[in-house]
Amino acid sequence: MLAGSLLQAGPLQAQPVLTLNDAVPVMDVRADALMWIDAEGTAAIEQLTSERPGVAFTPAKADTVYSLGPKAALWLHYRFTKSSSSRQDWLLEFPLPLLDLATVYQRSQGGSWTSQSAGDTVAVSSWPEPGRYGQFQLNLRDNGVHDVYVRIQHLTEVGIPIRVSTRSQQAQRLQLEYLAIGVVFGALVLLIVACAVQSWVYRDKAYGWYAVYASVMALVVASWTGVAGHLLWSDFSAWNNLAQGCLGLLGGGAALLVVHHLCGIGTRHKGFERVTYWVGVAGLPLALVYTVLDRGSGVRMIGIYLILIVVMGVGRAYLTWQRKDIVGFWVLAAFTPLALATLLIVVSILGLISASWLSQYGLMAGLTIEVPMLLVALNLRSRERHAVEAREQAMSSQDALTGLLAAHLFHDRFMQVVERAKRYQEPAAVVYIELVNYRYIKKTWGTAVAEQSLLRSVIKLRRILRDVNTVGRVDEARFGLILEGVASRTPVTELSARLIAAGLMPLKGLKPEVVLQFHVAGVLLSERLGSHEAIAQALADLLHSMGARTRRPIRFLEPELTHPMPLGAAADSGFDGADSGPRVSRPPRDSKPPVAEHGGRAPTPLRAVKSHSNR
Fold it and tell me: Which of the residues 69, 222, 527, 571 could staple to 228 if both were Cys, CB 3.0 to 4.6 A apart?
């Protein structure tokens, strides 16, 4: 660290003149200056350029880290000359977006000293060359030596990069820098939009919060690289000076919260997980506190907090990976590069090393790696969560053992089919199927074999039914089946016969060899209508009425009996009230039987023969 003050009067130390040549378009000039630190910060340019300045400049060193504090100011003195072959304009650059204030003094054509300023504490729109960092055009003459004085103020320890470059070289370099930054920000914006849309489409808040996190990190990188100060808040110098610290605290807290969310809840380190969560939440109040703290204390708070974030984030991801969770591997792989870049930034802002391109662009490179890989971890975790939610929803709508419709949902479908049959006369059949020997299997072989028998029954049902048929489990060993569009008993009988035959076929290799015995009770809604509760009860009663060894395992509810029509109405309409069928003309009681064509007696009707035999 360097400190200085006003010294005794003495001659200005001899300083070599730096010749600017187009053949070398970029030069690092940190070690080509004389430096002096004004401890009180009160010296003016006139005092330094007088015949007896009262200060002693010393040669500057390239890797010096200056500790200026709130009062002191660093003065640098350069002497430039332009080669006769140079036709370019030259710029003096300070490629450090964090720099508080840099003021450059040059002589005008009239010989007076003119000043220009740039830095965090000055609105970017008022800089002589607005951009991501301070840059000043050198007013070099074709011949002669040009003296340039630089006054720098910065509250914290800082190593200041300084270079001189031609305008064409600087323009090309800026284009490349903005190209790289634009690619990163374009990918981030695309990722943010995709996560926001996915959150809205799938109603998944996790992707929405991840979009918020990616937005915060994009602002952190924009602020750290100077893009935000140049393009977003170029007129707000106060916020430009605070944005890097506030957004850094918010970004660190958000990163730790994302890691905490993705790593899930463990069983062995609950205390550490709670601490990690609250440390992440502390990012917001600390960002507010930073706005009122003095800069030195604020920078130390940022350094401590970010180091804590790095340690806890890496530890949280490692513990998750240690419990064989693949998400922990992805989080660790994503967070480690960002953690290294963050540590490099902390070391830089604490003044332990001089600022370099790695400390400036390392965060952007780490974020480029971290955000997509964290998205992979988020996809894995969301897939697991959605699978659990799907199973939870299935448990409320499906039978847990067989996967068929739950009883309440089956009865809802049953009621809807009955209502449609009443209103629109849509044909349908309802069938109850019972595994008769379930209780025997359970008593003899145990619950596991009995449940296996139920699953085998479902498999056999699925094989003979179509996908559009509704199947549900209505009792412990009873299944319900709704066949829409069935108007006769034949399809129901065929399906039932196939099921009964399939149940009696032994399964190869099954131990114990258990066969499945089914009883079937069905009803055609075109034959019998009523409330679905009454029909369901009638089907259950029909199943109960069947014996275990019945030879008729397939039975139907009998059609409803219609009431006879009044005699007068039946006579007028031509229908017989006894059987509700069309009236048939009958011969008189005393008439003789009809005679065949060949004179023989007509054959006796089958009904008459049966009646005679019964007698």
Answer: 222
| Dist CA 158 CA 218 (whole Å) | 25
Pairing of strands 478-484, 428-435: antiparallel
Cβ neighbours, 10 Å, residue 95: 22
Which helix (H) or strand (E) covers residue 105, if one does? strand 101-107
DSSP reduced 3-state for 290: helix
Asked if 17 and 145 count as a contact pair (C-beta separation under 8 A), the reply is yes
- Coil vs helix vs strand at 84: coil
Contact assessment for residue 338 and residue 370, using Cβ atoms and an 8 Å cutoff: yes
579 three-class SS: coil
Residue 280: Cβ within 10 Å count: 23
Across all residues in the chain, what is the average pLDDT? 81
How far, in Å, CA of 42 to CA of 58, rounded? 19
Pairing of strands 34-38, 58-59: antiparallel
Q: What CA–CA distance (Å, rounded) separates 605 from 594? A: 12
Rounded CA separation 227/180 (Å): 12
The closest of 467, 401, 481 to 433, measured between CA atoms, is: 481
Is the bond into 553 cis (omega within 30 degrees of 0)? no
Q: Is the distance from CB of 431 to CB of 479 less than 8 angstroms?
A: no
Token pair for residue 343? 């540590």
d(CA 390, CA 582): 59
Separation of alpha carbons 247 and 402, rounded Å: 54
Least Cα distance to 373 among 318, 316, 334, 420 occurs for: 334
* Residue 35, beta-bridge partner list: 58, 76
Pick from 568, 476, 577, 485: nearest CA to 526: 485
Tell me the HSE value of 256 on the side-chain side, using a 13 A CA sphere: 29
Are 206 and 381 in contact, with CB atoms under 8 Å apart? yes
CB contact set of 247 (below 8 Å; sequence gap of 6+): 216, 219, 220, 223, 287
- The per-residue pLDDT for 325 is 83
Do 193 and 185 form a contact (C-beta atoms < 8 A)?
A: no
Q: Which residues contact 171 (CB under 8 A, 6 or more apart)?
A: none
The string of pLDDT tens digits covering residues 388-398 is 666 666 666 77
Query: What is the structure's pLDDT at 127?
Result: 93
Calculate the CA 216 to chain-centre distance. 16
- Rounded distance, CA 128 to CA 99, Å? 16
Copy the structure tokens of residue 374: 């964290």
Q: Name the residue type at position 118.
A: A
The pTM for the full model equals 0.64
Distance CA 195, CA 185 (A): 15
